[in-house]
């Protein structure tokens, strides 16, 4: 069943893309072909829903059940794109604080100028391409959509960093980068933490670098490894995490205070 769904999905998506391109370009598509493709798409979606419900009945959580129907990398990429657009909305609405009892530490300030500059260049390129392709309607419309989305994508990358700061409570340090990294580090697993500004990072096994503007400012060494999940679902364990914060000394002080805070006595409220 799983292989059947994957095969149908890999077949229907390119077919739908070709069909959309033909319709946009004004190419006449025979009615039987059009109806056959749409029926195939409906059947594929129906099989996907049935496969998802079957996986849920087996006791799988929603995300794992979805992976039974759609490959995990595809789900993660789509979720990442949607997350960027949601981050734009939250950024405009200035919704990037932390809940009660949790401290938030921003980390996007040092990349702002670069991201705004990149977005400006993309916007200028969009205007230029729109002017050059004005007399080719179909190509003009396609490139206009792609160019506008590129500008939103770049702004979304920055918005995701702004609206998803690092979080610290009494038990866990959550290190985040955009919409694709959300690493929960239990404070009990932290062996050492130090202020260590770095601008060059060599790749090493068991290390994770969450760079902002090419730099990191804090290094956390772990007594026990934690698992990192990549953008496409790849997993690996790390013992050293380097990351950046707008105010690294404040985050370092908060981390040290949280690690040395006395635990509540048994039988007393936390």
How would you summarize this macromolecular structure in one to three sentences?
This protein has 270 residues and is an alpha+beta fold. It has helices at 2-24, 31-57, 62-69, 72-92, 112-132, 137-163, 248-260; strands at residues 103-105, 166-168, 172-177, 181-186, 190-198, 207-210, 216-229, 235-243.
For the largest beta-sheet, the strand count, sense and barrel status come to: 4 strands, antiparallel
Report helical residue fraction: 40-55%
Taken from the alpha-carbon principal axes, the silhouette is globular
**How many distinct beta strands?**
8
Helix segment count? Answer: 7
Structural class: alpha+beta
The value of Rg in angstroms is 24 Å
Helix and strand run: HHHHEHHEEEEEEEH
Order of neighbouring strands in the sheet with most strands: 1-2-3-4
How many independent structural domains? 3
Beta content comes to 15-25%
Q: What's the overall average pLDDT, rounded?
A: 84
Termini separation: 50 Å
**Parts with pLDDT < 50 across at least 5 consecutive residues:** none
Tell me what the structure shows.
It is a single chain. The protein has 270 residues and is α+β, with helices and mostly antiparallel strands. The N and C termini lie far apart (50 Å). α1 packs antiparallel against α2 and α5 runs antiparallel to α6. 16% of the residues are buried. The strands form 2 sheets. Strands 1-2-3-4 form a 4-stranded antiparallel beta sheet, covered by helices on one side. It folds into 3 domains: 69 residues, no CATH class; 73 residues; 92 residues, no CATH class. β7 and β8 form a beta hairpin. The model has no long low-confidence stretch (mean pLDDT 84). The chain has 7 helices and 8 strands; from the N terminus they run ααααβααβββββββα.
């Amino acid at each position: 069943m799983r292989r059947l769904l994957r095969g149908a999905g890999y077949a229907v998506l390119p077919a739908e893309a070709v069909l959309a391109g033909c319709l946009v370009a004004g190419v006449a598509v025979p009615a039987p072909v059009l109806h056959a493709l749409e029926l195939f798409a409906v059947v594929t979606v129906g099989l996907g829903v049935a496969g998802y419900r079957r996986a849920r009945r087996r006791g799988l959580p929603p995300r794992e059940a979805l992976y039974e129907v759609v490959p995990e990398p595809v789900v993660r990429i789509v979720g990442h794109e949607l997350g960027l657009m949601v981050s734009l909305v939250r950024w405009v609405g200035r919704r990037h604080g932390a809940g009660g009892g949790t401290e938030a530490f921003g980390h996007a300030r040092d990349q702002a100028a670069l991201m705004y500059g990149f977005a400006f260049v993309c916007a200028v390129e969009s205007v230029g391409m729109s002017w050059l392709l004005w007399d080719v309607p179909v190509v003009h419309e396609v490139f206009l959509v792609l160019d506008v989305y590129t500008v939103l994508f770049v702004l979304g990358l920055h918005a995701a960093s702004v609206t998803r700061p690092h979080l610290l409570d009494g038990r866990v340090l959550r290190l985040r980068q955009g919409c694709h990294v959300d690493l929960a580090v239990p404070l009990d697993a932290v062996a050492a933490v130090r202020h260590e500004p770095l601008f060059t990072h060599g790749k090493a096994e068991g290390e994770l670098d969450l760079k902002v503007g090419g730099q990191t400012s804090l290094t956390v060494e772990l007594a026990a490894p934690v698992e990192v999940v990549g953008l496409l679902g790849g997993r690996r364990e790390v013992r050293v995490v380097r990351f950046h914060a707008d105010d690294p000394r404040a985050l370092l002080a908060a981390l040290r205070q949280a690690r040395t805070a006395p635990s509540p006595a048994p039988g007393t409220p936390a």
